[in-house]
Amino acid sequence: MRKAILWFRNDLRLYDNPALQAALNENDQIIPVYILDERFLQNDQWNIQRTGPFRMKFLLESLTDLKEHLEEKGATLLVRRGIPESIIPELALEFDAKAVYASKEYTHEEIQVEESIATTFPLHMYHSSSLVHPDDVPFAITEVPDIFTQFKKKVEKYAEIRPTIPTPDRVPTPQMIKDTLPTLEELGYASIQPDERSVIPFRGGAVAGDDRLDYYLWDSNLVATYKETRNGLIGGDYSTKFSPWLANGSMSPRTIYHELERYEEEVTKNKSTYWVKFELLWRDYFKFVAMRYGRRIFFPGGIQDKSMQWRNNDKVFQRWKNGETGDDFVDANMRELKATGFMSNRGRQNVASFLVHQLKTDWRKGAAWFESMLVDYDVCSNYGNWMYAAGVGNDPRDRIFNTQKQAGMYDGAGKYRSLWQ
Ligand SMILES: Cc1cc2nc3c(=O)[nH]c(=O)nc-3n(C[C@H](O)[C@H](O)[C@H](O)COP(=O)(O)OP(=O)(O)OC[C@H]3O[C@@H](n4cnc5c(N)ncnc54)[C@H](O)[C@@H]3O)c2cc1C
Known about the structure:
Blueprint: E1 3-8, H1 18-26, E2 29-37, H2 53-72, E3 78-82, H3 84-95, E4 99-103, H4 108-118, E5 123-126, H5 148-158, H6 206-219, H7 226-229, H8 243-248, H9 253-266, H10 271-293, H11 314-322, H12 328-340, H13 345-358, H14 363-373, H15 379-390, H16 403-410, H17 415-419
Parallel strand pairs: 1-2, 1-4, 2-3, 4-5
Helix pairs in contact: 3-4, 9-10, 10-15, 12-13, 13-15, 14-15
Bound molecules: flavin-adenine dinucleotide.
């Protein structure tokens, strides 16, 4: 009897999951596990908690949903707290599993864990988080273009988006005791009071992600006007809000892509429907940048290796975090983030530019605060966008946002600022 561990990471779904598919094809039984990695529950070098309450709540909901789906397929999900390098060998011993299957990650800490596990077990890894499969791009990873437009042009011309993999009918597992998931409070977090000003009440899990996809495309047709509304600030409808599900993999970018194609065939095809695909390519781009540049995406001088000078005044940073800088547009956005775990793309660009260029603060501190607070934190998108905003990433120009001008353009009547006063 061949048994293997299926180690869920940021791929919390049963459909379009290549690691799951391979584990089922090559084994008689699999042991599905998710590990709450202790290191991501701790504080970072700036003393900021790495996983804040919004993302942890969303993650627990996503795991509950995944566990329920696995149970419908005759299996369950083990949820353990610790470090994968210790837990995986323990489980392998307990269940006599001979291999591990998992989705590939592209950043330093995650790769170190993979390498450590691979020294003791055959670790089979699959690409499941990007829209474009890394084997399908027409360049070597060392040649990933430094300019997004060049990346996009090549990918759009030469790479086909792969079809999605169906959900398996059954997931055979050995007899095992069902784990009970910890609650937010058991993990040491205070319970979250929902804020009625939140763009949407985010709920983790593939079912909720699917509902959001249906809503944004088929129920509301909002996707057909996305390009006109995407710079909005208030409410659920101005943009897709797919990001939290995409970040932990309870939504697959390929599913979104193929649904968009179907929508374009059956309803309408226009600049807006294209633009959602375009944004998904930005998401991919930052993954490819991480693959190419490794640890450099976390360095103060970024991938450009620029030498930077910061003032790094802690009081100033605290005021930025709390939305007390005196710039009403920046402050409104920072308050929204703190109260809900979300901020619009327009807001993110403004507050990042303000921290770096006005407050002369190390961009990595801003990135760390976002890492803690964002419900949709994704290591590549976050550090890639922050480097970009700080002028140390994939932008040849130094873009400095005039936040008051931006407020005038995107919040002319002041509605957003008064919502978050
Ligand atoms: C400083 C900064 C930090 C950011 N940190 C993150 C992060 O940690 N996680 C994250 O998912 N996004 C991040 N973004 C990108 C972007 O702001 C969010 O993806 C977007 O606001 C999420 O809302 P949405 O799903 O409604 O996006 P939509 O506008 O509906 O876009 C659709 C999807 O395209 C992708 N996308 C859109 N814009 C970008 C972008 N600039 N970079 C990468 N992908 C993009 C996302 O997956 C998004 O869900 C950051 C942007 C900035 C400026």
